[in-house]
Design brief:
- The chain has 145 residues and is of the alpha/beta class.
- Strand 2 and strand 3 form a beta hairpin.
- The protein starts with a helix and ends with a helix.
Length: 145
């Protein structure tokens, strides 16, 4: 079990960097952490290197309901949104997987050994707000160029 969300974020970033997570239609991506200046502050923001797809990941140890609300808001500027949780605390979220499906929010769990399970993969859909999506995309320009 992870002690803090920061520990969980570190484990998630490690699996992303080592390409252990296979997000559908996304192979190579740039990574940012805790990005300000949009609606909310996603723990992880990804952008495909080839193309312009924006993906957000909200990390929570336990509170899947709060994470679901946050991840849903992030769809304003992201094309896909996920919640990543500690595998030890995933059961309540899995018991409500239909809410993730209805909201089109992905659900990922990770354990201390770095084993990742994608329980639900959302459908790739364009962000709701083009202006906010452009702001999110520009965060990568600021960081990587």
């Amino acid at each position: 079990m992870f002690q803090t969300e920061k520990d969980l974020v570190i484990a998630l970033l490690s699996t992303l960097e080592e390409k252990k997570i296979r997000i559908e239609k996304v192979k190579d991506f740039l990574i940012l952490q805790e990005v300000d200046g949009m609606i909310g502050r996603p723990d992880v923001l990804l952008k495909t290197k080839r193309g312009k797809k924006i993906i957000t990941i909200e990390v929570k140890l336990k509170n899947w309901k709060r994470a679901l609300r946050q991840a849903y808001r992030y769809r304003c500027f992201s094309d896909m949104s996920y919640i990543c949780m500690d595998s030890k605390n995933i059961k309540p979220a899995l018991d409500n997987i239909e809410l993730f499906m209805k909201s089109n929010i992905g659900l990922i769990s990770i354990d201390r050994q770095g084993n990742v399970i994608i329980h639900y993969e959302p459908i790739l859909k364009e962000a709701y707000n083009k202006r906010l999506r452009d702001i999110a995309s520009n965060k990568f320009v600021e960081q990587y160029e």
